[in-house]
């Protein structure tokens, strides 16, 4: 029978940064993704080179995917990233990208198509890092709950930011459906988010009415709780 695919949240996204690493792990996440372009912008190339590995910067007890799929090759054969913070341009050739990935020691790496082609030419020694690929079906992407739940577990890992993005908007999962807790119908709904759910939030018996109120008055706190619920739901349904 199909099983729930393994959710891989993105820690370097806006939504992903809403939770602490401990929060993510309490929600049942054991494998998380970091985007190389985001790391090149912050904390920056020089800092990354100074690390003994990613886990010296992200003290994560689970496994990490370093995703380099968004790095684009220019006509000169370089991979350029322009920082959103100060406009700095970081430029690396393929060999330097591979050397950086290897030095950061992720458990897995995802390459862009052009980097994958360069990998065939340069043949870097990955030193135990396992390469994942959307084309080979070992790494997929999903942006909706229904699409995620339709993926069979043997289809590989599924990177998804939508559970956290939805939670930020007050959209919460129950019985394969999405509830908008900002809707007034939940203002007097004193049931838990999802009956039988064992996430850290539902175990404390917080109600839909409570989160309806919280989203309007202290949304950052509400979002942190709801992200944990949505992520746990995806992992267990």
Automatic annotation (TrEMBL):
Source organism, top-level taxon: Bacteria
InterPro entries: Queuine_tRNA-ribosyltrfase, TGT-like_sf, tRNA_ribo_trans-like
Transmembrane segments: none
Keywords: Transferase
One MF term in the entry's GO annotations: transferase activity
Residues annotated as domain tRNA-guanine(15) transglycosylase-like: 161-236
GO biological process, one term: tRNA modification
Stated name of the protein: Queuine tRNA-ribosyltransferase
């Amino acid at each position: 029978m199909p099983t729930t695919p393994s959710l891989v949240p993105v820690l370097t996204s806006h939504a992903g940064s809403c939770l602490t690493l401990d929060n993510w792990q309490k929600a049942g996440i054991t494998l998380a993704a970091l985007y190389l372009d985001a790391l090149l912008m912050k904390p920056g190339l020089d800092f990354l080179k100074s690390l003994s590995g990613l886990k010296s910067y992200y003290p994560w007890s689970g496994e990490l995917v370093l995703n380099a799929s968004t790095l684009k090759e220019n006509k000169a054969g370089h991979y350029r990233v322009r920082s959103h913070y100060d406009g700095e341009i970081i430029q690396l050739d393929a060999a330097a990208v591979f050397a950086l990935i290897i030095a950061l020691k992720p458990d897995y790496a995802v390459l862009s198509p052009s980097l994958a082609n360069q990998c065939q030419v340069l043949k870097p020694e990955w030193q135990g890092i396992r390469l994942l690929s959307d084309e080979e079906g070992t790494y997929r992407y999903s942006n909706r709950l229904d699409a995620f739940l339709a993926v069979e577990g043997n289809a590989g890992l599924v990177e998804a930011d939508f559970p956290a993005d939805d939670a930020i908007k007050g959209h919460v999962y129950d019985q394969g459906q999405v509830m908008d807790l900002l809707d007034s119908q939940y203002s007097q709904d004193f049931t838990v988010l999802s009956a039988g759910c064992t996430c850290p939030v539902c175990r404390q018996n917080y109600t839909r009415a409570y989160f309806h109120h919280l989203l309007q008055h202290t949304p950052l706190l509400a979002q942190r709780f709801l992200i944990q619920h949505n992520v746990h739901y995806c992992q267990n349904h």
